[in-house]
User: What shape does this take?
Amino acid sequence: MDSKNYHEDLSHIRSMMERSSRFISLSGLSGVFAGLAAIIGAVYVYFVFQREGIDYFDGESNVYSLSLVKELVVAGTLILITAVLSGYIFTANKSKRKGLKIWDATTKRLLVTFAVPLFTGGVVCLGLLYHHLFALVAPATLIFYGLALVSAERYTLTDIKYLGYCQIILGLISFFFLGWGLVAWTLGFGVLHIVYGLIMHKKYK
Assistant: This one.
């Protein structure tokens, strides 16, 4: 009997330590919705290219007008807002069901760790746009996003680092196939997010 209580106490202590050091309320469904938003956005961008008579698969030979760049930036911003809002809603609901705080010291550390490589990548992408190196933007976003996920792993679910590794590998590969950047971006931010989200939802629901 004492041995049973001892193991139960250890399990309880381990659970408390995990809750205090890691943000464990991240919802798998948020990944699914982020992936769907990315795919819808990629389809929209593809038809924008069609409308402008641009063959994206030409890679480096494409030249974008300022108005087109602005339209693409707006589309990317809307995708990001949709992903963030859906992530917050699903994660907040999961935290409420588990009786956990969504905003604490761990959450702050997670956001800072995640934001540093993401912000750096954003500045790099702006530099690429400024120098009209449009074909490099999609690979760069995948790589820096993957680095952000791997960095954030220490403060949230360990599984997220595997999504990060996949994003980095996909981004590195797409650097050598510049005309297929939109396809790689769709696979990374769309398909991989959906697959990851469904796996995490089933594993941690």
